[in-house]
Amino acid sequence: xxxxxxxFDYDEFKVxxxxxxxxxxxxxxxxxxxxxxxxxxxVQTKIEDASGELRxxxxxxxxxxxxxxxxxxxQSFKESYAxxxxxxxxxxxxxxxxxxxxxxxFTIDSLDNFRNERLRxxxxxxxxxxxxxxxxxxxxxxxxxxxxxxxxxxxxxxxxTNIGNYKNEIRLSNRxxxxxxxxxFSTAQVKSNDFIFFxxxxxxxxxxLDIKEQEVPxxxxxxxxxxxxxxxxxxxxxxxxxxxxxPIRAYKENIMFTGRMDITDKALTGNGKVEFEKIxxxxxMKMLFHKRKFFSDTCxxxxxxxxxxxxxxxxxxxxxxxxxDNRVGEFVTNGSGSYVKFDKNQYIAYMDxxxxxxxxxxxxxxxxxxxxxxxxxxxxDIEGPEFISIHPKQDSLRFFAPAAKFNLKKYxxxxxxxxxxxxxxxxxxxxxxxVIIYKNAVMDTLKNANLLCxxxxxxxxxKKVTANIFSRRDYLASGEYxxxxxxxxxxxxIFNTIRPDTAGETKATxxxxxxxxxxxxxxxTFAGTVKLSASNQFLRFEGGTKIEHPxxxxxxxxxxxxxxxxxxxxxxxxxxxSKDMFGNPVVNAIMYAQDTTAVYSGFVSPKYRxxxxxxxxxxxxxxxxxxIGEYQISSKEKLTEFNLxxxxxxxxxxxxxxxxxxxxxxxxxxxxxxxxxxxxxxxxTVNDSLTIHTMLLIDFFFDKGLLKMMAKDMEVYANTxxxxxxxxxxxxxxxxxxxxxxxxxxxISDLNLYGNIKKFPDALEKTFFFNDVKFIYDAKSKSFxxxxxxxxxxxxxxxxxxxxxxxxxxxxxxxxxxxxIIYLEPDPSTWYYFEYFKGVMKVISSNKEFNNTIxxxxxxxxxxxxDKGPSFQYAIGNETTVKLFKRKLEQMQQQEQESEQEKxxxxxx
Length: 909
Description:
There is one protein chain. By secondary structure, the chain is mostly beta strands. Among the domains are: 1-137, no CATH class; 879-909. 9% of the residues lie in helices and 50% in strands. It is built from 6 helices and 66 strands. It has a 33-stranded antiparallel beta sheet that branches. It has a 17-stranded mixed beta sheet that branches. Strands 35, 36, 38, 39, 40, 41, 42, 43, 44, 45 and 46 form an 11-stranded antiparallel beta sheet that branches.
């Protein structure tokens, strides 16, 4: 006994205990110590707040010799208490202020010799509102504490102030307030062998949990669980059930729930994982279970593969609604970061919603009514669901699709309303917006699609495309490309191979057959290979082009070329050694046939004979000038600016006239006599007439003193002769063929300012330089004959610049070796005659001194030292030869006049 105000009354032989703090009792353990004495153990529950007296013995037996077996006796005078707030009991959870056993006043005799079973204290138990207050008797429990074991009434006890109901056994000891029985709360019934009741909660492992299906006051499915950890929080009107070894089964579909289920008076919710329909599972922090539906505002959803290991479909951060009656699950995303995962397909999709049809084994994703604007310039501005491949070899291939259907059995994703797919530098637009994805991220072949490349320049659009997309950087396709000419006329090109190169640029190759009748425009036909490069605005053509014209004497061939073609500005590259598709020579020239001495023209034409000689030709680029109806070949610069120097060739399709200019080669065979032509030639193919207007530089071995004498004679008559025309627009460009454009411009400037050249160029210091000569080709005599006066610019460096009467005649000889005749007559009494043939230049003049000087010259001085090639010498000519030449020339001119008159007469008729 511990307390104060204890008073010993000797007469009564008792101790009066006014205030007893605690009473500690020792009881037998049933064991003996080593001496055979009984062992005792302190009862773990103290009786506190008592008052009473201890009668030690009978007052007349103070010595103790007499027998008084009922003594010592303790009698309490008021109610006392047993508390269970020791820290050893769940850390003092049972607060003595409201959890205690109030013991009625009691008497205990034979204190020095009583049996354990006689330790009984009647009283009232207050359990902090866990149960109603009830009468009970404290007895010694197996843990040597004071407590009790009792049964509830059949109807049970309302718990926690009418929040819940408990039936069956209640136990109190230092192990806490426990029970074996049945706890009912809301729609749940929990049975456990060992409930632990706390003032604020009830805990334990339930052998069974049963939840009744109901519609009111709130919807709830049936559920059953075995071996469930429960936690009942009455203050929150909450019963929590956590699965341990087995899941909780719910609904008639026997869904399996693992985690924590919360039952309140308003709802049944859960935190954990739901498995249902054998293949589906949902994990969520919170789920709401209704009678035939359940919901989650934030969950992850998984669908197992039907015939394989692993998942077929999974997603995260979704708002879910599962309807077992309608057999559908509806899911809506909670944010832009949510995506669904097609595990077997190796794809993810940022979808805002989808529906799972349980019985059809199908999932519908997105909204079929939604359309994505494919015209948005920047892909970052496109809004809508996006599919992304997670296949390691597909470089995150991705595309937008507002809707899709997923077949769980076949693992097929059918995407709907896909605006386009970007791969490499291209956009591919699926037919009807449909895209199919199989297992392992294999995309079905796209058919009848459209393709745009590249996505920046958007130069090329291809239709009727069949495409296999392999990754974000690779695809293989074929399709139809519409080449559109300048008149908007379309020509289809089939690209059999369309694929990006290693740098990611789309390349395409197609074949155009001659039978396809493909044209760049109305004037150019093409056959061969065509290539596309996405970054190049124009297609590249490798093959042959044929020009279209009515000129029957101009034979046609396919010109082999390789180059980019601008449909609005056709420029075909023409190499110097042009070939046709079979490697045969193609000519673009006015030609001279060596064996027949005939003149003909070729414009993208086959060469007649290997030995035919070119008079004038051109290479560079071939184009057609619509305004004048003319094919033209020259450099790009000259095609733009005609007055630039350089060779040029044209064919007028209206007149069938071939015109050429620039450096010319009259195909002369004159040994050491060198002739350089720069001018133009016109070949009217209808009547085979050829006229040449040219500068002519002739150089041969000759005495310079004689040439000076000749130049002096020309100067004598300068005032009577017309000057040559420097203002002609052709003069500078033809002159530039000899000295270059810069020097030519300087020469023209000097001539216009001073009448002569300040620094005479070496290139012009030759025997004769004629700056204005007109030739015709006489088919009968096979000769080139000058017409009109000869513009003589200089003899050596002696500048003349006068129009001199005379003739230059070049006879083309079949037997080889051409004849050259130059006749100059500045005055009827003054003339010079040069005739070259087969290594000999015969020269004679009206100038006797000139003739005598030649006659008197030693033979060796008239012979040229030649390192290679035929020999050359000059000698005095015969005046008779000159007379015969002039007479024959007059006859030719007379015949020509009569022929012209006859032609005019026929025209008049």
